[in-house]
Amino acid sequence: MDNLITLSMKELQRYEVAQKLIKKQISEDEARKSMGLKSVRQVRRIKQKVIKDGAQGIIHKSRGKASNRKLKEEFIKEVMQIINEKYHDFKPTFAAEKLLENHNLRINKESLRQLMIKEKLWKPKSRKRPKQRHTWRPRRSNYGEMQQFDGSYHKWFEDRGEEACLLVSIDDATSKITEAKFDKNEGVVAVFKFWLQYFKKNGLPLSIYLDKFSTYKINHKLAVDNKDLLTQFQRAMKQVGIETITAHSPQAKGRVERAFGTLQDRLTKELKLANISSIKEANQFLKTYIPKFNQKFSVVPKNQANLHKEIDKQTEKKLPQIFSRQLERKVNNDYTIMFENGFYQLNEIQPTTVFKKDTVIMEKHLNEEIKICLNGHYLKYEVLPERPKKQNIKLCALTRQKSGYIPPKDHIWRKFNYSTKSAQKNKLELTSV
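-> structure tokens emitted (433 positions)
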């Protein structure tokens, strides 16, 4: 019994065309067009194979044979042993990178994906159609034109250490991480320290894109409940000349959201491999990790100009004041001020005139120092150990200097009576004098 030859539809069509060509029913050029080939030379080669081997000449010689690129069993065994020991919770792409980086074993990510699926270390996800389509917003053209900023609460150290929040700014034009820092929360102090560090390193960007409501995540159990935080942030950015843009949805600032998705997968595992379990160690690790991350995931901007602005000396001197928490308070009748459960007694001599009920600005600097500002002047004060008793100091105002002159009893000023009934009488007495 002759061996059975199985041909695909494409091979069967080519065999029929080759038969017509052999019988000289069509020309070589017509055969080329029918077979969908680019040159007549290919047609002649197929014709010679059919004359020599018949239908077997149409079939590719490597059919039924193992591929020359097939991975060796010893290599597969070595790879899967390392994966099971160190990278069993890694995604295939990241695992392939670590095999090359740490073990000098090169394997295609798709080949590794199939091996991990076979070993039940990776479960393929079904593709789902998005419920709502979002159009892509074009990137900004220049580096430094817009920074997307957000914070992410996540188990960055898994169960090895303290919980932390990662603050990140992403350049909109390049998707480059321009600054990243671990902190305990996303409160006022943490955010202000983050941007002070950013300005010293990069300069002032033109604008910052952030969440409208959830940037500071006051609903999170680790977040500091600062209802005035967004206002403080906008106030500080306005003073240094940076525009703040608020997003109406997470998708609007998708570059930083996608970066967090990648970091939550990759950075968490990198910290685990480095056995890092504290915020201090993690921030030190970021100095070497972020350049590698940017090299892999950043893109080339449309224009090459850097639009970051340098900080002038005048603004640099004011940075501690600008990046302080500022709240309004009233001067009481006894010239005391209450702020954050503390009591501050104003001194009698001040650089500017202070009246009762004046509105002052309480500044709490990042170094915990408290300053009281009125009309651009810092007032002198003393911290009281306890709540003062209610009293009304007769001083009408606190001034630059204390006057030592006291008018005598018979001074003409003491003869004035400004009541409505005696105003005319005083006027007549003065006229007679």
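The longest helix spans residues 254-273.
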